[in-house]
Each structure stands twice: as structure tokens, then as C-alpha cells.
Write a structure and sequence with these properties.
The chain is an alpha/beta fold. The chain has helices at residues 9-12, 36-39, 44-57, 70-83, 100-109, 147-162, and strands spanning 19-24, 61-66, 87-91, 113-117, 139-142. 38% of the residues lie in helices and 16% in strands. The structure holds 1,3,4-trihydroxy-5-OXO-cyclohexanecarboxylic acid.
């Protein structure tokens, strides 16, 4: 018998591109001019553009969000869960060392994440050695400058490709 073409709605559905979200904490909007000895001279816009280009090249949706406000970051994590974001890359900046609330948002939404720091936090003041995120993270990249974000993205892209 001749095979009938499946014309049902389900057959026409193209799977949605996986979504990634990059979260940047306080003062990272100042990258480029902020303490370049620690953070380099690449701007946040340049970092986000490089990430967006790489993701787009492999058909992954990537959005970036920066805030100087703890609550705004927490609400963005909650929204990410609603949007079905698959993975996060997060540089919580100073909230790394202070924010149980942002930690709880990540724990509560269960979105796997990579923690990124531009500077090597372990080679700096002792208050930067403590992170409220590292034990929940899939992995941590610290001290590799803006390249750390791209390395985190490569890792997540390889995970997505293997799923
Ligand atoms: C940082 C390190 C933090 O200790 C600091 O508060 C930041 C940036 C980094 O990327 O190296 O704002 O997360």
C-alpha cells in the first residue's frame, strides 16, 4: 500500500532551537574601563556579541542579561525556567561572595550552569575565595579573562550536541 504523507500538525513541528542565557552581575556593565588589570579591556557588549555569533553559527538561541540588582537577576532566572532555557552561563560578580538569594534561585529552578569569572578569584583577596555558587555549578572557569565565557559556551554547545 502506498505510504500516506503525514500531514498532522505534530509532523510539521520543527524542534525549537535550544536556548542559553548568559547572566552578568553587578558592575560588569563597566567592563572595558573597570580595573583593566583584573578584568581586561574587552567590553561587555563585545563579550555578548562574540557569544551571540558563536551560538547563532550552530543554531542555538543565546540571550544575555546584565543587572546591578540582585532581585532583577533572580527574576531573570525564574523567567528562564518558564522559557525552557537549557543552560546558563553566569558571572555573579560580587554576588558570588554574598548572595544566598541568587544561589537559591539557581538551586530552585534547577537549570544547569557554568560559573565564570574573568579574574582568578583565588589569587585575590580572601573574601573572593568563597563562592555561593561553585558547589552547584556544572563547572567553574576563573582567571581566563573574557575567553572564559567562550570556553563555557563551547562546553555547553558540546553537551547540547551530545544530547
Ligand atoms: C568577578 C570577580 C568578583 O570577585 C568581582 O566582585 C567581580 C567580577 C570576575 O569576573 O572576576 O565583580 O566575578
Amino acid at each position: 500500500m502506498k505510504k500516506q504523507k503525514d500531514t498532522s500538525a505534530a509532523a510539521d513541528q520543527v524542534p525549537e532551537a535550544p536556548r542559553l542565557l548568559v547572566l552578568h552581575g553587578p558592575n560588569l556593565n563597566l567592563l572595558g574601563t573597570r580595573e583593566p588589570g583584573h578584568y581586561g579591556s574587552t567590553t561587555l557588549a563585545e563579550i555578548n556579541l562574540a557569544l551571540a555569533h558563536r551560538a547563532e553559527a550552530v543554531g542555538v538561541q543565546l540571550e544575555a542579561f546584565q543587572s546591578n540588582h540582585e532581585g532583577a537577576l533572580i527574576e531573570r532566572v525564574h523567567a528562564a525556567q518558564q522559557q525552557g532555557v537549557r543552560y546558563l552561563i553566569i558571572n555573579p560578580a560580587a554576588y558570588t561572595h554574598t548572595s544566598i538569594a541568587l544561589r537559591d534561585a539557581l538551586a530552585g529552578t534547577n537549570i544547569p550552569f557554568v560559573e565564570v569569572h574573568l579574574s582568578n578569584v583565588h589569587a585575590r583577596e580572601s573574601f573572593r575565595h568563597q563562592s555561593y555558587f561553585s558547589d552547584l555549578a556544572v563547572g567553574v572557569i576563573t582567571g581566563l579573562g573574557s575567553e572564559g565565557y567562550l570556553l563555557a559556551l563551547e562546553y555547553l554547545l558540546s553537551r547540547i550536541a551530545a544530547e
